[in-house]
Specification:
With 278 residues, the protein is mainly α. It has one domain. The chain has 13 helices and two strands, in the order ααββααααααααααα. The longest helix is centred in the middle third of the chain and has 35 residues.
Length: 278
């Protein structure tokens, strides 16, 4: 077991360093710089409306929620981008056959890839959130450690994205695998948005007037059974936005994504075990 753990960590380190050397990592730095420029002006304080100064903490919580969702969703996009060509690049460069010719099993190789990509994605997202946290804490004297805890909770989403893209990249062209997982994320956010509107007083009134409650049945199925990527972000952001704990509705997205990750992970290990290594 210690030997297997060592092999997985070695593959993870190689994967992480290999990704850092790719052009996609430069794109990540550019996006990071643009993101920080966007957030910098929001952390200066002194917000005013009609000549009246607003409460900094109240405004910051609203702004941070928007920044949090942009950052978390953007990192999922980058995680998919990182993962889509991992197997193909290793195969084309001969690294896959070289690594597997050593006393390293296929499941250790795949586990190392998952670990390396997940660590890189989580680290990037957490660093961005940490910079925002520091700017707000220093400039506005508003300290919210729960913001960083919320960032770590979103690592569930990144694990799902990495596993899903790796699996799909074995079954279809890389770009199609990337687009499929991106589509899963978009549907998740749209379904959650429709569900939120349908639960609002205005949404309830509109459905009663139009008698179109049955039209939302499909979206209700998608809402509960589709991967809850949006749900995890909502549950995580509620920790610092004072929306409160909503019981099972707050816990279910994590159970949902964990189950999906385990199922897709099992399929990934099974599929790679039957992959032809050239």
């Amino acid at each position: 077991m210690p030997k297997a753990r060592s092999s997985i960590i070695t593959i993870a380190k190689y994967t992480l360093m290999d990704q850092v050397r790719q052009k996609s990592f430069i794109i990540m730095f550019v996006m990071c710089a643009l993101f920080l420029l966007l957030v910098r002006n929001c952390s200066q304080g002194g917000f005013m409306v009609n000549g009246q100064t607003l409460d900094n903490e109240a405004v910051v919580r609203v702004v941070l929620k928007a920044v949090f969702h942009i950052n978390a969703a953007g990192t999922m996009f980058l995680a998919a981008l990182f993962s889509m060509r991992v197997f193909k690049r290793d195969r084309d460069e001969g690294m896959q056959s070289c690594i597997l010719s050593k006393p390293i099993t296929r499941w250790q190789y795949v586990a190392g890839k998952i670990l390396g990509l997940s660590v890189l994605s989580v680290a990037f997202m957490f660093i961005l959130h940490s910079i925002v946290f520091i700017m707000v804490s220093v400039n506005l004297k508003v300290v919210m450690p729960e913001y960083l805890i919320a960032s770590l909770l979103c690592s569930f989403n990144l694990l799902f994205v990495v596993v899903a893209v790796l699996l799909f990249s074995l079954l279809m062209p890389d770009i199609i695998a990337f687009l499929c997982v991106t589509g899963i994320g978009i549907v998740s956010f749209v379904a959650d948005g429709i569900a939120a509107v349908s639960r609002s007083p205005m949404g309830q009134a509109m459905m009663q007037q139009s008698d179109s409650t049955s039209d939302l049945s499909l979206w209700k199925v998608i809402y509960y059974l589709w991967p809850k990527l949006s749900g995890i972000q909502q549950a995580a952001s509620s920790m610092f936005s004072r929306e409160g704990f909503q019981g099972f509705l707050s816990i279910y997205p994590f159970i949902n994504i964990l189950i999906y990750s385990l199922i897709l992970g099992a399929l990934l290990f099974w599929r790679f075990r039957h992959e032809d290594i050239i």
